[in-house]
Amino acid sequence: MLRKIVVFLSVVFASVVGSCVSNAAVPVHFHYTVVVYDSSHGVPLQLARVALYRGKSLSAGKLSDINGRANFEDVEAGEYELRVFVVDYQPVSRIVTISLDHEQDTIKLQTVVQQEIVIGAEEQAPSIPTIDLKTGVQSLDATNYHASPTHQIINLIQENLLGAVRAPTGEVHIKGMHGEYTYYVDGVPVPLGVFGGLNSVVDDKVVDVATLLTGTIPAEYGGQVAAVINLQNRVPTGAAHLDFSTYAGSYLGRNNASPDSLQLNSPKLKPINVNGQNLSLSDHVGNLGIFLSGTRQETDRRIDEPLPYIYSNHGFDYFTYGKFDYILGENDYLTMNLNWSRTQTQVPYDPVQVATLNDLQTTTNSYEMFSYDHTISREADHESDFLFGVFARQGSLGYLPGQIDPHNFFFADDSVHGYVLNLDRSFSTYGFRTKFSKQFSHEVQFAAGVDLSIVSGTEHFTAVDTNGNTGRDNTTDYKGSNFGAFAQSTVHPAEWTSFDVGVRYDQQVSPVKPLESQWQPRFKWNVFLDEATTVYAYYGKIMVLNNLEGLRQITVAANVNADSTPTFAERDDYYETGLMHSFDFGLRLKADVFKRVSLPGVDDQTVGSSAIKTPVNIAEVRTTGIELGLSYSAQNIPLNGYVNASLIHAYGIGVVSGGFLQNLDDGAATDLDHDQRLSIVASVNYQPHDWFANVTAIYGSGLTNYNPNGTYQTGLFDFNQAVHTTPSWIVSASIGYTFRLVGGAELRPSLYVNNLFDNVHLLKGAYFSSASWEDPRNMVLKVEVHL
């Protein structure tokens, strides 16, 4: 496969370069900037939709940044229609001519009261493409995303990111990796939390825009980089707003009539209930913007079940969030994000394996970040900016098994007395990130920065015997750190090509293993065939740091056969080549082929019969894939949609070690537990002025259903279906309407039907971790009031 990629690159790029060089009439391009302000208060407007049209065709679209600036790179000189739209403001449309003498426009928007908004005003909002033609980066505009209120942030990622695979609750697999991705909020990273925690510091209900990077990761980003998810959470514009919403749903799930007797052939129906509430408010006081929200959720199915039957799965989620923006001046901006969340849940079990369990798990997370953005220069082709951000995260994981659980944990020097293990783990992370960027000229851009995080915490295991007596305690105080630095440059020597060149250095200090470090060069060559077509090739050396919260030592005490080897960072050689193209009728395309060689790779494994997991190494992991993304926005009607399709094969070779667990072996080649060959997400959204209708379909050819005697072929098109679960389509639909009331108030009822055709199937078989099943069909009604 690697040889085929190299040959393909050589042929395509040779033909591209030849055609570009022979074309003497090269269009002239410029950087073009639109600055959007509130005309009444003079403050910049973040996340304004800014688009450039030629005729009826969308040429480029951007969302303004925290300084109200939408920056368009390499725009061909000529005449365009500029459209600017922000909710609660009067839309603006004007004709502009981009040239050497006209590289910036300032737009001042006037606010409108609700009664002045005419029918069809929202239809004037320009479509912002979800695939960037220059970089291939995907983006999500939350105004077009209508997920069920029961969904988590992982659903947002899985449904909108190319190469993502549905997985059990709390996980999403990206480009054949287990789930090693990192959130950034307003340019500042969210450090990893307690391994095994099911809630997150980010709630998809407060996300306005998500920028999704995967594959061709620039040197700026390190750590868990299967994907980088940049989230922007906007303080709503205008005067004070208050929103309240509540939802409820119920459906019939199957439950064993008598779990203790294991009469699995005599299931009965059991009502499964979900409900939740959200309250948020926002306001602006001078240059200060404030947004506060709180969410409560309750469900009878918090975690994916190991069987289609419902035995133990009641859970609660509590989430609070606050954002504060302050404009110091034209060139200076402050942002603060605060969060606290708590999840309490039962842990479901498989009654075929054990008679009954009564496990409880509680996780807490909090996150604080503060960033300072400074614009050093706004001069065209000489812009420069500086970002400094500090962050902190705290969390805990409490795991309390029931006394009725099997007591099957044995210490190495005692093979007679069995125990269950209580876990109490807590941590704190503190760090900072800096980034300096400068445009030296139209042809050269440079950026550099450093990041550092320090982690400390305590892991406390308590062994309890069959009589309820406390046995041995194992308490470990741990401390570690992650440090990274990068330098990268974009060189644009000719209008038809550019080079992204960078190098990154990462190191990790861990309490359980020697210092790990690596220099990581990364290189991307872009060729612009025309305004609508880009091809590229990428190579990157990537070191995927392990989560310090997941490196556990308790298993050393479990048995004399346990290996003393810790889990080391994954080290990858990554290759990708791809194509982006925009069609005149509103369709954008991205296609790529990639290969990753990991020496070693990383997966996670369950410790004993508990719900506790730890990362482990696989001697070698090989991943190949083909991806296709389509994004469509209709020109004359409020209709948009997308298709994300990927064909990816990830398999492991050799010894499975680390985590202080007993070694296993993947042999000559075994499909990884997160391997699914074909994954497709298709979504259509119709959104006129006062209502929306959305249909999303998800196809998976099946995750691993491990068989030690199975036959595993390593070709990309060898589906190995005999050792995978059954393929499935899951279709979900939603519809909602907005009633406009007196005084600008709004009432918004909406209905969500998940798994419309009730396709209940095995989502994943037992391998490395337990099996899980699809959620049955369910309906959720949501009512929102906006004041």
What is the rounded Rg?
26 Å
Structural shape = globular
Average of pLDDT: 81
Low-confidence residue ranges: 5-14, 16-25, 114-124, 195-199, 257-264
Q: Largest sheet, if any?
A: 22 strands, antiparallel, barrel
What structural category arises from helix and sheet content? mainly beta
Query: Helical residue percent?
Result: under 10%
DSSP summary, beta strand count: 43
Strand content: over 45%
- Helix count from the secondary structure assignment: 2
Query: What distance separates the N and C termini?
Result: 57 Å
Please supply descriptive tags for the structure shown above:
single chain; 787 residues; mainly beta; 22-stranded antiparallel barrel; 5-stranded mixed β-sheet; 2 helices; 4% helix; globular
Structural notes for this entry:
Helix content is about 5%, strand content about 55%.
Helices and strands in order:
Elements: H1 2-22, E1 29-38, E2 49-54, E3 57-63, E4 69-76, E5 78-85, E6 92-98, E7 104-109, E8 138-141, H2 153-160, E9 164-166, E10 172-174, E11 181-185, E12 188-189, E13 209-214, E14 227-232, E15 241-256, E16 267-285, E17 288-299, E18 315-329, E19 332-347, E20 359-377, E21 384-400, E22 409-411, E23 414-439, E24 444-464, E25 470-494, E26 497-510, E27 513-530, E28 533-544, E29 570-582, E30 587-598, E31 601-606, E32 613-633, E33 639-657, E34 664-665, E35 670-671, E36 678-686, E37 691-700, E38 728-737, E39 739-740, E40 746-754, E41 762-764, E42 772-773, E43 778-786
Parallel strand pairs: 1-7, 11-14
Antiparallel strand pairs: 1-4, 2-3, 2-5, 5-6, 8-13, 9-10, 11-12, 13-14, 15-16, 15-43, 16-17, 17-18, 18-19, 19-20, 20-21, 21-23, 22-23, 23-24, 24-25, 25-26, 26-27, 27-28, 28-29, 29-30, 30-32, 31-32, 32-33, 33-34, 33-35, 33-36, 36-37, 37-38, 38-40, 39-40, 40-43, 41-42
